[in-house]
Amino acid sequence: MPIIGELSPELRIEPACEADRALLFAPYKAALQGYVDWAWGWDEDKERLHFFERLPLNGLFKLNHRGQCVGGFCIEETQEHSQHLRTLFIRPESQGLGIGTRLLQHLIQEAQRQQQPLTLHVIHINPAKRLYERLGFRAVREEEKTFFMRLDSR
Fold it and tell me: Where is the N-acetyltransferase domain positioned along the sequence (predicted)?
């Protein structure tokens, strides 16, 4: 999925390297700790292990807004030939600026270009669910703490 590059004059996607994981963990924690804590309890060691060892580097990207890293995301192709957005996180102080919307529009375009559905999980209390729905995602399965959402290719 060719997703690297400039989304606007102020917003750029860059591939993450191993050294970027430490930089990216701070916005990951700031954006998601409250939701993860509600769902499963935030365990710092477990979350660090997940972030540093289980997110595939080849699908991990940085979001730079006005030259500053404000968040990131991890996306991967599944065995079912869909694109799965494993995580998306934006620093709370950078939310509400259209960064998530612009990124998701770009990911949707790329998935549709490849004629693949785009899927994700969202924790029940995360208000990002409304953004996903506005962009066309539908909850196809409700799990104990999350919704599994899908946007089919057109």
Answer: 11-154
